[in-house]
Design goal:
mainly alpha; about 75% helix
Length: about 280
């Protein structure tokens, strides 16, 4: 139960980070927003680790897995932050909701978790939901839409590698390593797109990083306690705060097709969740 609670809280927090990122992207290049997310993440997580988790700090036991996990989260962040510069939060998040479906598939090969017929049917239903949203041949599938979908694929790998690390490294080590790798990569790119920050933008970047750090820390902790394929559907609840943030701050509401596609995707995920817990 604790794993589900931690996971759910993490997902419900993250849309507030996305909303701030979308707001800042109206004045800043999205890569600079990504830089702020990682830079201030390190400023928050390192002192926190030294004060509260000092005895857990040590070099990662699974360096290659840490590197891959950090890369996939970084890639997912860049792809998603780019997507929300052009499309609504709800549309971008709904397209990225392909990640729990991909997690279910990847858990077979990377985590050796068993996936039966019922779960495969749920995966297919979820994929149909994605097709309803993008409506191939009926609407233009633009670069931002593709970017949101690709962010979901990348995030699925991030979840898988997070689960693998839960057996070898502490959550705080994983969090700091993630921030360090992301910061080093984005620092090579951001100088080409840099603009001077004002006080308001700095405050919002700090808030964005704080929310993202806490959200991901909760998700990392939850994956130490529960299987990735069972926790993955809880990510669908992110849409509740996502729609709230999109409507209150950007006057965005999903259209009928997005609601229909979202319904199919969420039903597929909740079916997996309820069936696994019924067993």
């Amino acid at each position: 139960m604790l794993a589900y609670l931690l996971n759910l809280c993490g997902w419900l927090l993250l849309p507030f980070m996305d909303g701030i990122a979308k707001y800042l992207s109206t004045d800043l290049h999205f890569l600079q927003v990504v830089w702020g997310r990682y830079f201030f993440m390190l400023l928050i997580s390192i002192p926190t680790a030294l004060i509260f988790f000092r005895y857990e700090l040590k070099f990662p036991n699974s360096l290659p897995v840490q590197l891959w996990r950090s890369f996939f989260l970084f890639l997912s962040t860049i792809l998603f932050f780019y997507a929300i510069t052009s499309i609504s939060l709800a549309e971008a998040l709904t397209l990225s909701f392909v990640s729990p479906i991909i997690v279910t598939i990847l858990s077979i090969f990377y985590l050796e978790e068993k996936v039966g017929l019922h779960r495969w049917i749920a995966v297919i239903v979820g994929f149909c939901g994605v097709l309803v949203i993008i409506r191939p041949g009926f609407i233009d599938f633009n670069l931002a839409s593709f970017s949101a979908l690709a962010a979901g694929f990348s995030y699925a790998f991030y979840i898988i590698y997070t689960r693998k690390l839960s057996f070898t490294d502490s959550a705080i080590v994983t969090l700091i390593f993630t921030g360090t790798v992301g910061f080093l990569i984005i620092s090579l790119l951001v100088p080409f797109f840099w603009t001077n920050l004002n006080i308001s933008q700095i405050v919002f970047l700090i808030l964005l990083a704080a929310i993202g750090t806490l959200g991901h820390f909760l998700i990392i902790l939850s994956l130490r306690l529960g299987e990735a394929s069972k926790l993955a559907p809880l990510g669908y609840f992110e849409i509740t705060t996502n729609i709230l943030v999109g409507y209150v701050f950007f006057d965005d509401l999903p259209d009928l097709w997005i609601y229909l596609g979202l319904f199919l995707i969420v039903i597929s995920g909740l079916y997996i969740f309820m069936r696994e817990n019924y067993k």
